[in-house]
UniProtKB/TrEMBL annotation:
PANTHER family: ATP SYNTHASE SUBUNIT B (PTHR33445:SF1), ATP SYNTHASE SUBUNIT B', CHLOROPLASTIC (PTHR33445). The lineage of its organism: Bacteria, Bacillati, Actinomycetota, Actinomycetes, Kitasatosporales. It comes from Streptomyces virginiae (Streptomyces cinnamonensis). Residues 48-82 form a coiled coil. InterPro entries: ATP_synth_B-like_membr_sf (IPR028987), ATP_synth_b/b'su_bac/chlpt (IPR002146), ATP_synthase_B_chain (IPR050059). It is found in: Cell membrane. Keywords: ATP synthesis, Cell membrane, CF(0), Coiled coil, Hydrogen ion transport, Ion transport, Membrane, Transmembrane, Transmembrane helix, Transport. SUPFAM superfamilies: F1F0 ATP synthase subunit B, membrane domain. This is ATP synthase subunit b.
Length: 167
């Protein structure tokens, strides 16, 4: 006997044991292996589908974020432009108000200066009239008491002096 001429009983027993082991493996082990492989395939394909869903959601959220960011930038630009225009308008208003206040102050000061000049001129005329009357009284040697006549002479003198200055 040898490998080329096997013993028939050993060959039959070997084949029966082989098929028994093969049947046991096919009945018990192969369904478990198939089940495990199917679970892995399902998990892999499910994970892949979930990853694709998450990726598409991320793209959608990113697009929304980009749109919101663009809108926010445009809004900020519009707000900056409006603030700039408002600032320019406010500055112009403040300048015109300041210009008007300056003109009012200059006009008030001019009126006040003219009033002060008139008052000072009147006081000075009275003082000059008093000094001229006292000096004329010293020159004559007796006090002059006719104030109305002295005032008329002084007014005529000052009117002539003003006419000479204006001309």
């Amino acid at each position: 006997m040898g490998p080329l001429k096997p013993n028939f009983i050993e060959l039959i027993v070997g084949l029966v044991v082989f098929f028994a082991v093969f049947a046991t493996l096919a009945m018990v082990l192969l369904p478990r292996i198939d089940k495990t492989l199917a679970e892995r395939e399902e998990a892999t394909s499910g994970t892949l589908e979930r990853a694709e869903a998450v990726e598409s959601e991320a793209r959608r959220v990113r697009a929304e974020y980009q749109a919101e960011l663009s809108a926010a930038r445009q809004e900020a630009s519009r707000i900056r432009q409006a603030a700039h225009e408002e600032g320019v308008a406010l500055l112009a208003a403040v300048r015109s108000e300041g210009q008007k206040a300056r003109e009012d102050m200059v006009a008030a000061a001019t009126v006040q200066l003219e009033a002060d000049r008139v008052i000072a001129e009147a006081e000075l005329r009275e003082h000059v009239l008093g000094l001229a009357t006292a000096l004329a009284g010293r020159i004559i040697g007796e006090p002059l008491t006719d104030i109305d006549r002295a005032r008329a002479v002084a007014d005529a003198f000052f009117a002539g002096a003003e006419a000479d200055t204006a001309g």
